[in-house]
Design a protein that fits this description.
Blueprint lengths: L12 H18 L3 H7 L7 H7 L17 H14 L1 H21 L2 H12 L5 E4 L15 E5 L2 E12 L6 E7 L5 E7 L5 E5 L11 E12 L3 E6 L2 H35 L1 E2 L2 E2 L4 H29 L5 H25 L11 H13 L4 H13 L5
Parallel strand pairs: 1-4
Antiparallel strand pairs: 2-3, 3-7, 4-5, 5-8, 6-7, 9-10
Helix pairs in contact: 1-4, 4-5, 4-7, 5-6, 5-7, 7-8, 7-9, 7-10, 8-9, 9-10, 9-11
The protein binds 3-thiaglutaryl-CoA (TGC) and flavin-adenine dinucleotide.
Length: about 375
């Protein structure tokens, strides 16, 4: 069920090793407590040093910057194993590695890379990525946060919303328009005067993840905190491509956990004198779920090959993110249904995954936005 098409036969030794290591960690440290942490609405901060030691924070970066130069496929299976535990755990790693660290790696100076990246890889320094604003989510070009030049300083003012890791972070990568209206990136220490992070406590999804509003009230930072090579919206959008790639893989983990739970439950739950697994309608659900899962796995694997071959385009990532987030959500909802009344309890995992996947379907570009990205690529017509 987990590997119906025997894709693991093609895994490299590196992929097998990282998957086993992360799987053991998640089974031991996360699975027994995931429901409880999710209910409490808190990110398990005590796991952060262990996540650093496991090597899941920025693993594709070169060793000089604290990474381990992992292949895109090995990185993918790592994200899959994390999200088998909880989407919030994978989100922590995606934002730290795929967004905040990648932004510094791709657009920062050598000094910025050496100052921040190794400590971020070890989990000693936490980062967040502030692009979305209260009135600019799908359309980040409409952002109103401003970075005004003031001698050798920038003064940043504005608000960001829905920022993962926001109130855990030591540094925030903030995207703001400069005096010429060009989007630029800045490394903002979260203890700078005028910077406030406020947790969002009303979530019915992603409850194990820290999500925040960020307020920047005339936050004055030296020019040396600017990411000099980031000019224009393409810079933050290129970071999104990295994190979206991780989501394509991560969603497989959540879907797999839900499907496995539903299949086990169906075999042991008796109704009308026989296991519900022996009814045609439950089998139809399970086969639909497996069919979706296999499609997700094949998409992710080929996406990984395109990445490794340097032929990956962002529309490829959009199609796979759109498909896999929605397919995982459908699988988790069906799993919840098979579990009946028990399915709504966090003693089981499927409802927690389904609730989380509502966010995953929305963040990093909604289903509709990815439809329009792929539509534009295929038809060369902009329909936003
Ligand atoms: P558009 O003209 O399309 O693009 C501007 C420039 O950027 C380039 N570009 C990309 N480059 C790399 N990767 C991508 N994904 C790119 N998308 C666009 C593009 O080629 C262009 O370059 P150039 O050289 O021609 O200037 O800009 P637009 O304003 O029309 O916007 C297009 C649109 C709607 C696709 C874009 O705004 C978009 O993707 N919107 C969705 C916003 C989004 O996904 N936000 C996510 C915030 S972060 C988050 O959710 C973290 S969740 C936590 C976790 O990951 O776990
Ligand atoms: P809107 O853009 O207001 O969209 C509302 C609806 O309108 C959606 O269904 C959308 O698909 C639809 N829509 C919009 N435009 C069109 C169109 N042209 N055609 C058809 N339909 C359209 N952002 C960050 O910067 N950093 C983070 O770390 C981060 N973490 C997040 C964590 C969580 C838990 C959540 C929920 C969000 C996070 N986000 C983060 C923000 C996320 O990326 C945005 O919520 C997402 O991009 C959608 O933006 P929005 O919420 O403003 O929705």
């Amino acid at each position: 069920m987990e590997d119906f098409y025997r894709l693991k036969d093609t895994w490299t030794e590196e992929e097998v090793d990282v998957a086993d290591t992360v799987r053991r960690f998640v089974d031991r440290e996360v699975m027994p407590h995931a429901g409880e942490w999710w209910q409490a609405g808190e990110f398990p901060r005590h796991l952060i040093p262990q996540l650093g030691t496991l090597g899941v924070l920025g693993p594709t970066l070169p060793e000089a910057y604290g990474g381990s130069g992992l292949s895109p496929l090995a990185y993918g299976v790592m994200m899959q194993e994390l999200e088998r535990g909880d989407s919030g755990l994978r989100s922590f790693a995606s934002v730290q590695g795929g967004l905040a660290m990648y932004a510094i790696y791709r657009y920062g100076t050598e000094e910025q890379k050496r100052t921040y990246l190794p400590r971020m890889a070890r989990g000693e320094l936490i980062g967040c990525f502030g692009l979305t604003e209260p009135d600019a989510g799908s359309d980040p070009a409409a952002m109103t946060t401003r970075a005004a030049k003031d001698g050798d300083f920038y003064v940043i003012s504005g608000a960001k919303r829905w920022i993962t890791n926001g109130h855990l972070a030591d540094i925030a990568v903030i995207w703001a328009k400069d005096d010429a209206g060009i989007v630029r990136g800045f490394i903002v220490p979260t203890d700078a005067p005028g910077f406030h992070a406020v947790p969002i406590r009303t979530k019915a999804s992603m409850r194990m993840s820290a999500t925040s509003e960020l307020y920047l009230d005339h936050v004055k930072i030296p020019q040396s905190y600017q990411l000099p090579d980031a000019r224009g919206l393409g810079a933050p959008l290129s970071c999104l491509t990295q994190a979206r790639y991780g989501i394509v893989w991560g969603t497989i983990g959540a879907a797999l956990d839900a499907l496995t739970e539903a299949a086990l439950y169906a075999k042991s739950r008796v109704a009308f004198g026989k296991p519900i697994a022996a009814t045609q309608l439950v089998q139809a659900h399970i086969v639909d779920m497996e069919s979706q899962l296999v499609t997700m796995q094949l998409l992710a694997r080929q996406l990984g090959h395109l990445y490794a071959d340097h032929t990956l385009r962002y529309a490829h990532v959009s199609l796979a993110k759109r498909h896999n987030a929605r397919a995982a959500l459908m699988i988790a909802r069906q799993a919840r249904e098979i579990l009946g009344g028990n399915g709504i309890s966090t003693e089981y995992h499927s409802m927690r995954h389904a609730a989380n996947l509502e966010t995953v379907d929305t963040y990093e570009g909604t289903y509709e936005i990815h439809t329009l990205i792929v539509g534009r690529d295929l038809l060369q017509e902009d329909a936003f």
